[in-house]
Amino acid sequence: MAGLTNKLPEELQSLRERGLDALRKLPEADPDMSSWIAPSSSKDAEGKQSARAAYFNTYGFHVARGFVSEGKAAEMIGRMTELVEDYWHPGDPAQPSAVFRTDSEQTSAQGSSDYFLDSADRVHFFAEKDALNDDGTVKTSEKLLALNKAGHGLHQADELFRNYSCSDAIKDLVKDLGWNDPVIPQSMYIFKQPRIGGEVTSHQDSCFLHTEDVSTGEPRQSCLGLWLALHDATVENGCLWVRPGSHKEKLRRRFNRNPEYFAGDKTKPQMVFEENDEAPEVAWEGKLPDGSWPPPSEGLFANGFVPVECKAGDLVVFPGTLDHLSLPNYSDLPRHTFQLHLVEGEREGFKWSDTNWLQYSGEGEFKKFLPIRK
């Protein structure tokens, strides 16, 4: 990618070049490709769509280079550092300690934690799986370096992140891609720490943020992920990998609230995965494809994944059925990102599923974009 000039070890430089070559070899985007979110919704009055919408609808992702300035990215990093210092006190008996996992243990980690469920409209902090001592204190001298993520209400609770989330640039992009009545269920700050930043296994975002047809109640996905790089994200420090075209596949599973637990059986986990028998089976569901790690990551290329390297300030946007992942960060380089998730609103015929893990308490409502600029 132009602009990334960091010197890489030979095997990683080869990996970068192979990834760039794979992206270059993708056929030209189909200008007549139907909109992922709704037929013709990303086309103008003459039935045409922008180049970025055509690429997004054809391959399931779009990279907006320089979406924010490097200065704005640094400002977000600085603000999160302040929030961690002021509000995260690991080892304090008055504040729960929680870890976040994306591996086979994620149901027991996230699925048994009130602290996780209560984070919907707040800012809660989640450590890396091996970063805490038994008493909840951190193993590192700098507590920031123990964190996996902060979420899931930064777009509600903090002015800087709220202003970005509802900026005209976001509105214009989302509108161009076909969303007309979007709301924001969640936001996350991901740390991907140097040397200990864990992998994020293969998944589709709609698994965790699913919607339904407002009339029929049948599953109808509308999630849109906006992945903003706050540091350079490369094959060295755990950049995003996507499987182009996989957004056209059905949602493989849903992460649901367990009705048995919420009916009163507290011996059951709070959350469970519900498999979709109509979706294509993939051998790497919830894990990494065989041969993903260490580089040269032959297993990823063999299964159609490509790395998407970013400069600080670049934004990757993709629908909720795109298969994607990231590898561990064993480098000495940080790789922070701010990730925003939208879903289409009820005016456009979509309904937030009441089985989603994320539910606002009381009368709380998701942040609306309206009015979206025409």
From TrEMBL:
Q: Does the keyword Iron apply?
A: yes
Q: Which cofactor does it need?
A: Fe cation
Organism, as annotated: Triparma verrucosa
A Pfam family that this protein carries is PhyH
Q: Which UniProt keywords are listed?
A: Iron, Metal-binding
**Gene3D superfamilies per record:** q2cbj1_9rhob like domain
Q: Kindly list the GO molecular function terms attached to this UniProt entry.
A: metal ion binding
Which InterPro entries does this UniProt record tie to the protein? Phytyl_CoA_dOase-like
Q: How is this protein named in the record? A: Phytanoyl-CoA dioxygenase
PANTHER family linked: PHYTANOYL-COA DIOXYGENASE DOMAIN CONTAINING 1, PHYTANOYL-COA DIOXYGENASE DOMAIN-CONTAINING PROTEIN 1
| Renumbered residue ranges of the record's region Disordered | 22-44
